[in-house]
Write a structure and sequence with these properties.
Length: 481
């Protein structure tokens, strides 16, 4: 294991280099949504520096590094795929993973050609679970088709989206499935080296992965394939794939312009496959059960299952595996059991850089395109509900404070504009309505963010703001003169 940074010019980018995580209180959006439950703790979160955004304990918000509660975990889909073993914690070490058929998918893959493996992934219609929903098979094919060597595979375990604790528990409870999947992906695309990029805020996942990696090394399961664990140092934007590449390379992790895409020129300018933890965790099941069995689950262009994580305001917060195609209302009312603090005001699905859902949109079906049609997204699958205690102006101010803090600084509208927007929103939230000049400044920065941002951080912030300004316009009216 090595930390992501070396040298002062790189170290200065990160907020958690040399910061221990003892007694840190979470400043993520789930804790913001639940701040009425423990105002003292939220005040502490707002006063600690540097801030720690999302500890992956949103089922017990407001939380801190000392919160030891475990979430409720349940499979609500026909098949348990990514949460198999996560529910009953039956596959934590190598022996138990193997006794449940672990590493058989890797064996099966090796008995076939790499072309066969990629075909299985492609035909399964698996789409990336890291946010963009890009078809996994197409990405694998793009890397396999490159002739330049060496090639790399990377598991993105940065899970920075507020409200999401999916990858955390997949890793903590079944670390070998991620390792097996990464080895299958390396076989398929022709890579001999892999990386797992894990956030520092997940120390239990780190120790589980370290143990699992040493177990596979001693057992000689991976052959020549080597996996290195890299620990992030506190930066949301490092979850963005090109920033993550720079971070592994010990460069300042600013986002890279694309093209070229990582599939062609990624880590050390070599072809690189980057997939999210949950995407990879579906692979062993697909190899063992067949692409058709996977594609038969779900609906429309969203096939298979998806893990979702519900925040603490729900009556039944927790981690659930669902099939695509169920109405959002089923998630809110049946799976989550509604809110324990009254009526639901809005829903954030997929993190802070996507649009919010208004309760009038809860009949939307849970699918990539379907949510996009109402200005939302699947994102990473973290679901944060807000009750009547949350004022929309405060939520926007909170997200732009986070956005400004986590900007990589490469684009001017994101570097300066998100802070300016935070200040304007903060002024309005304190009861000083924006003048028409200030309002037009706000809207023009949002427009610049949408049009000119190099990555989804800046564009996503503008999408979030646009959705709140439109869907909650009545409530926000007093914020403008
Ligand atoms: C600001 C930003 C943060 C991101 N953070 C993550 C993250 O924490 N984990 C993740 O898997 N993908 C994250 N992504 C998406 C990655 O860039 C990339 O699309 C993903 O890892 C690809 O894997 P997939 O195809 O399996 O989804 C982020 C994107 C942006 C723009
Ligand atoms: S939008 Fe923000 S985070 Fe993304 S590249 Fe530009 S400055 Fe960096």
């Amino acid at each position: 294991m090595r930390p992501a940074q070396t040298g002062p010019e790189v170290e200065s980018f990160y907020s958690l280099s040399d910061v221990t995580l003892d007694h840190r209180v979470c400043r993520g959006t789930s804790c913001f949504a639940a701040k009425q439950q423990n105002q003292e703790r939220w005040r502490m979160a707002m006063s600690q520096w540097p801030p720690v955004y999302c500890l992956g304990k949103c089922y017990a918000s407001p939380s801190s590094t000392e919160t030891l509660d475990q979430p409720h975990v349940e499979v609500c889909s026909k098949e348990a795929i990514v949460l198999m073993g996560v529910v009953d914690q039956s596959m934590v070490d190598l022996a138990s993973y193997r006794s449940h058929g672990g590493y058989e998918a890797l064996e099966t893959a090796r008995q076939h050609t790499s072309h066969w493996v990629i075909e299985q992934v492609d035909r399964s219609n698996l789409r990336g679970r890291g946010g963009a929903g890009f078809p996994a098979g197409k990405k694998w094919m793009a890397v396999a088709n490159q002739t330049i060597l060496p090639k790399y595979v990377i598991a993105n375990a940065d899970e920075g989206d507020h409200g999401s604790y999916i990858d955390r528990f997949i890793i903590e409870r079944v670390p070998h499935r991620l390792i097996e999947a990464l080895a299958i992906s390396a076989f398929a695309v022709g890579a001999d080296k892999g990386y797992i990029y894990l956030r520092k805020e997940y120390p239990v996942a780190q120790s589980k992965l370290e143990i699992a990696l040493s177990e596979v090394k001693s057992a000689g399961i991976l052959g020549n394939f080597e996996i290195e664990l890299v620990i992030g140092q506190g930066s949301y934007v490092c979850g963005e794939e090109t920033s993550l590449l720079n971070s592994i390379e010990h460069r300042r992790p600013e986002v890279r312009a694309r093209p070229p895409f990582p599939t062609e020129s990624g880590l050390f300018h070599c072809p690189t496959l980057i997939n999210n933890v949950e995407t990879l965790s579906s692979i062993p099941w697909i190899i063992l059960h067949g692409s058709e069995a996977y594609a038969n689950l779900g609906f429309s262009k969203s096939r298979g299952t998806k893990a979702i994580s519900l925040n603490s305001l729900f009556n039944r917060p927790g981690l659930y595996e669902v099939e695509f195609g169920i109405p959002v209302r089923t998630i809110v009312e049946e799976i989550g059991g509604g809110l324990r603090t009254g009526d639901i005001k809005a829903l954030m699905i997929g993190g802070p850089i996507v649009g919010l859902l208004h309760p009038s949109e809860f009949d939307t079906l849970f699918g990539f395109e379907e949510l996009r049609q109402v200005g939302g997204a699947i994102g990473h699958g973290g679901i944060v509900a807000f009750d009547s205690n949350t004022r929309m102006i405060d939520l926007l101010t909170h997200e732009f404070e986070f956005g400004a803090q986590e900007s990589c600084g490469k684009c001017t509208p994101c570097r300066h504009g998100s802070r300016r927007i935070q200040n304007l929103l903060s002024q309005a939230s304190k009861g000083q309505p924006l003048t028409s000049r200030e309002e037009s400044e706000l809207r023009s920065i949002l427009d610049a963010l949408r049009r000119t941002s190099l990555c989804g951080h800046g564009t996503g912030l503008s999408v979030l703001a646009a959705s709140v300004l439109e869907k909650f316009s009545e409530e926000l009216q007093p914020c403008f003169m």
